[in-house]
Amino acid sequence: MNPEDANGHAARLKLLLAERGAQFDEPARVRLHRAISWLARAEVEHHDADARFVFLWIAFNAAYANEFALEGSAREQLNAFFARVLALDADARIAALLLSRFPGAIRSMIGNPYVFEPFWRALREHDAGSRWKETLAASTRLATRAILESRADVVLSVVFDRLYVLRNQLVHGGATWNSTVNRTQVRDGANIMLALVPLVIEIMLDHPQQDFGAILYPVVPGH
């Protein structure tokens, strides 16, 4: 079964790209085509949350990464991308998604020490102090207040801090496939990404005049 034939967001987004493709320059078309292809693969992965999350992260990375991806921190790039997408989201669809559809999953994610990098740093450095706990509590308070104040930019930043740790655990072999010890964060992370990634792609499709930069690995003719 071809993933792009699946009944999901990817099929609809593929049609939108076909209809609007002439409005985009070549790097943008390639960027969106790649992102949609990986989203399509993720959508047919119904029984493997680890694989679905990884495919969704690839789709997301295809959407935002550019030729300057090797410069600056990943967090700086993500925050800059989020700021742009949120500014383009005139109907506040991302805010509605985060604050209305996934409040429980997001609260669980932001309070989970196992997707909080300072926890693992303290463990690696044999730091028995409580600093990481204080940092986690402060981060959780910040995100909780942002949820109450409908500040999607802050919520998105904190959530992706956690999702990035989860991404590192899976992609760099820091977790066992289908392990029983990390199911909640993997399941919640995959569900959040499955809703957010197609929305981000759709917002990009709605704004062909926006320049999201040159892609890091352009198509080479004849290869």
What would you say this structure looks like, in words?
66% of the residues lie in helices and 0% in strands. The chain is an all-alpha fold. It has one domain (3-205). Helix 1 (9-20) packs parallel to helix 10, helix 5 (93-101) crosses helix 9 (152-171) and helix 8 (131-148) packs across helix 9 (152-171). The longest helix has 23 residues, at 183-205. The protein is globular. The relative contact order is 0.18.
Number of contiguous helices: 10
The low-confidence parts are 1-6
Share in β-strands:
under 5%
- What is the domain total for the residues? 1
Give the helix proportion (percent range): 55-70%
Number of strands: 0
- Summarize the biggest pleated sheet: none
Distance between the termini: 26 Å
Q: Rg from C-alpha positions?
A: 18 Å
Order of helices and strands: HHHHHHHHHH
